[in-house]
Amino acid sequence: MATLYVRDFPDALHTRVKELATAGQRSVSAEVIVLIDRALEHEELRDRRMRALRRIARRRRGATPRPGAADTLTMLSEDRAR
Q1: pLDDT in tens, 37-71
Q2: Domain-wise residue ranges, the chain
Q3: Is this prediction's pTM over 0.70?
Q4: Which residues lie below 8 Å from residue 27, measured CB to CB, with a gap of 6+?
């Protein structure tokens, strides 16, 4: 297993990590691994969501209404006029 050293780690951040480690009954090293793992999972999830949103946007831009399909804006305007 690799070893990771971090220079100039802020004292306030170290204190927070120690508090989380104590609360989770883990060592500081184990807590840092958990935090990094969660952060990476969060980034991967965010990336998947962004890719999905881009695919949806591409599909919407390429979508054209079928001939004779109802125009929803016209329908809303007519309904509100009643």
Answers
A1: 999 999 999 999 999 999 999 988 877 777 777 78
A2: 7-61
A3: no
A4: 21
